[in-house]
Amino acid sequence: MRKVVKDLDNIPTSLISQEAIDSLRNVIDTKDNNLIKADIYRGKYLKTDGSKGDEVVEELAKIYHEKCAYCEERTLIYIEHYRPKGRVQTTKHGGYYWLCYEWSNLLPSCHECNKIGGGKADQFPVSNKHLTYADCLTDQQIDSLKVKATYLNSIEAPFLLHPEIDEPKDFLAFEIDANKNGVSMIGIDETGRGDKTISICNLNRQPLLLNRLDYINDYVNTEIKKLFAKLSKGIISKETFSEEMKELFQELDNQKMDEKRPFTLLRWFVMESADNFHKLAISNLSRNEQEVALAFFKAYKNGTL
Ligand SMILES: [Zn+2]
Predict the structure, then answer these.
(1) Mean pLDDT by groups of 10 residues along the chain of 305 residues
(2) Rounded to the nearest whole angstrom, what is the distance from the C-alpha of residue 138 to the centroid of ligand 1?
(3) The pTM is what?
């Protein structure tokens, strides 16, 4: 997960149409949860100009660069309700159906992160109390369909991180997982929100561990190994080795800013400190090569390479 900026004032028209407002009123007035599955919400995410396609999915795909908000893999995305719409697992809360048109409650997710059994699904644990629509919606607010997640989060204090509100860098880190042979995500905050987010969305499932490791191996480890091999065989001089290491670090720095690539947070994390780089990117090198690569990395970060 990485921080994403979404303009909450630029709302897809399908979410603020009169039809959407009428549907929401119908659910609230009748308290009929079946309407959430049937009438409301799916059809109302479609384009209002008559053209084909799902306006909300398309907008979210654009903003999130077709990546899942939670695991950051590029994938077919589905609309995920940050606050579950139908019910809240292990509680008697009837779900946040009144937020099914709230732009800040809609995130793009892959199937795996949000699936029932092994994914987020209806999980939404909070530190305080789960709010109902009666707690915070006035009639006027229903008409504007606006109860932003920032406001709700400030009261409920949910454990699940919200990529448009929280700064994931403050909660999440990575490490090589020797047992599972991959790169694990770990929580680093004292409140436990990082760890809880990982467990809710199952962000250490085996395919993710391996795909993160593939990134490290394909884009970092292998390239550095190639440079060492060329140097030892005398194919390149020490000066060229130094220049090519610098170019590689620059490329990695460019990639960490490239939102279109998967695992933006991991890319940032690897390049953030010499310690991170050492533990994640070059642990497969020989001890001597590790020392040399680390010295080059430090020089690059100091601006002396
Ligand atoms: Zn995902």
Answers:
(1) 94 85 80 65 62 82 96 92 92 87 94 94 96 75 70 94 97 89 95 98 96 88 92 96 96 89 95 95 90 96 94
(2) 34
(3) 0.91
